């Protein structure tokens, strides 16, 4: 005769959830509903978050599908540099135009690509805009003068930094002739005090009413390296073969007129005759503070 199996005693709910049986039935139902509502809310929130994430990805894919290439705008490029520098700046970005414009590194890549272009002194900001557009703000180097070499000319800015390109003569800029040092790579400073002296003279004369009659500064005898007795710096005028013997570099005068005296003589000449050279082919303004001399 088979033995009857003993039934296992079931553990009351009250022993697993102490105090639960002591709560009124209506209160227990309210707590249960609250728990279920909380769980449902969390589930909806998780689903919404997933949906938004997928929506963002879908929108990005739609946008990227419409934008074939990133576009770049140099928002504060001086008008005077649009023709000179525009092609160089655009060419520097050719390697990254097809990159995914939403990539986190894109702004940094743009800054690095244009950072080595000699026209740019400093990158101020690169801003990403919708539809693959980028705005670039920078501090630019502006041409101050041409430096004459044997067969061509190079542009430099006020600080003596070489700018990109090789040029034919252009009367837009005065020439510095006789620079001793070889040209550096674009974006680098040209060594030698002779170029800086020439640029200093050009700067002193650039705002004068007679500046258009100045065509260049000759520094071949800078420091008296060719002839200690001759003028270290001369000005070339728009008269064929016209010369003005300036003297020493600004700030290095010894027993000669200071810059202020030389400018006064040139201003008086221009006021009297309409010519900074007073109408003479060659004059010397380095000796007397109140007048020029005509070399014999």
Record keyword descriptors for this entry:
296 residues; alpha/beta; Rossmann fold; seven-stranded mixed β-sheet; 10 strands
> Structural class of the helices, strands and pairings?
alpha/beta
Helix share, percent: 25-40%
CATH topology of the largest domain: Rossmann fold
Using the 3D structure, state the CATH architecture of the largest domain.
3-Layer(aba) Sandwich
CATH class membership of the largest domain: Alpha Beta
**What is the mean predicted local confidence, pLDDT?**
84
Number of strands: 10
Spatial order of the strands forming the largest sheet: 5-4-6-7-8-9-10
Whole-number total of structural domains:
2
With helices defined by DSSP (H or I, 4 residues minimum), what is the helix count? 6
Give a short account of the largest sheet: 7 strands, mixed
Low-confidence stretches: 1-18, 47-65
Percent of residues in beta strands? 15-25%
Which H/E pattern describes the elements? HHEHHEEEEEHEEEHE
Task: Spell out the blueprint of helices and strands.
Elements: H1 13-16, H2 25-66, E1 71-74, H3 82-91, H4 106-115, E2 120-129, E3 133-140, E4 143-148, E5 153-157, E6 175-177, H5 193-205, E7 214-218, E8 233-237, E9 243-247, H6 259-273, E10 282-284
Parallel strand pairs: 1-3, 4-6, 6-7, 9-10
Antiparallel strand pairs: 2-3, 4-5, 7-8, 8-9
